[in-house]
Specification:
Helices cover 35% and strands 28% of the residues. By secondary structure, the protein is an alpha+beta fold. Helix 2 crosses helix 3 (88-103).
Length: 107
Amino acid sequence: MVEKSTINTKDGYLYIITNEAFKGWVKVGVTENLEKRLNQYQTADPHRGYKLIYSLHHPKYLEAEKKIKEAMKPFAKSIKNEWFEIETWMAQARLDEQLEEYQDGLL
């Protein structure tokens, strides 16, 4: 019997989204399609205030997502699900670290 793999073999993106309505907060997430994901957020905002401020391509984006959320915790003032009250440059550095770990063979 052959077991079905639950590992996602598709590449994807790590991203950071902000919205001026939530100053000081960033949303960190993953997706296979950045444009589609941003549009999904925009439908919930009549002002279309969500901005994709940073993204990077990652071959193991789903695995990296879990690590990013753990890595963000010590730097965030507050956390609400996938939203972090954190400086954008600090959030960006955490995403970059995940790609570096993958490139160094640590992920």
